[in-house]
Amino acid sequence: MAAQAFRVMLRMNIHPGMEKEFEETWYRVGKAIVDHPANLGHWLSRDAEEPSVYYVVSDWVDEPRFREFERSDDHLEHRTKLHPYRSGGSMTTMHVVYGMTGAASASHGDR
User: Which residues form the ABM domain (predicted)?
Assistant: First the structure.
């Protein structure tokens, strides 16, 4: 992880019963994000306690490039496809100060 990466974390509340369809749609439309030249990675996680709550973490080379993507037609299209599944949520942004890779990362890989 680059030391000054910009991280975006979304909490997404999904309508109960639509979780699987949401996950599949998120995966299909995620190319719009990972293909952006300033994107470092993009992950979807489901809350262990609340099965209709998801977290999306997306890392960017810097904040200005993320904001550029955030205002783009590609982002609008991405959001439009995911909107029907959402019942609410929030967004948090942050600057990564340090990043450390764990010993098991090479054998475990991103999922």
Answer: 6-94
